[in-house]
Amino acid sequence: MAFFSSKQDKDQLKAQRGETVLKTPFMYNYMGGYGEYKKATGTLQFYTNQIEFSSPLSTKFTVATSQIAEATVEGKDDVSKRFTVTRLLALGIFAFALKKSSKEREAYLTVVLKDGQEIIFHINGVAPRDLQVKLAKLMLQLKQANPSPDSQANTLSVADEIS
User: Fold this and answer.
1) Boundaries of every domain in the chain
2) Among 27-36, 46-55, 89-98, 135-144, whose mean pLDDT is lowest?
């Protein structure tokens, strides 16, 4: 009976997660921005219904894709140009000290939630462009699932605008 319960749990977890969208071989440094979770290094798994961050014996959390407004990949230069309170808190004083480098091998993944939270991950040893290519499918799915108000406004017909 215990085996059946375990299989049921696995099936339920798979239904909750959805299909695997992407498994990346990178270690992600969670910098902050989501709840009260502490900074940690771990894996990030992308599913159709949620993303999961897991650090051994430390921080673990799940974010439903329905909560995600957008996700962006940036390099150090991009991050240092845009500051928000969340970014400043997550990166600390080092946010101002980010150096420019000609061969950028560090990327930042920012997951912006609909409630305004910004979850920031740092990936060392990966160029931002390489990470963008790996996450392209995921980002497209997020945009399709969560169209921006601007894109919705553009879909109005002339008849809609007149009335």
Assistant:
1) 19-146
2) 89-98
Short-list 44, 41, 45, 34, CA closest to 55 = 41
Q: Is 115 helix (H, G, I), strand (E, B) or coil?
A: coil
Q: CA 18 to CA 35: how far, in whole Å? A: 24
- The residue written with tokens 């040893």 in the block is 125
Dihedral (Cα; 156, 142, 76, 37), 10-degree rounding = 130
19-146 domain in CATH 3.90.600.10? no
Neighbours of 126 (CB within 10 A): 21
The stretches of the chain forming alpha helices (DSSP H) are: 2-17, 76-81, 85-91, 128-145, 149-153, 158-162
Q: Are strands 50-54 and 68-74 parallel, antiparallel or unpaired?
A: unpaired
- CA dist 16 and 89 (Å) reads 32
The pTM score is 0.72
State the sign of the Cα–Cα–Cα–Cα dihedral 113, 56, 131, 31.
Answer: positive
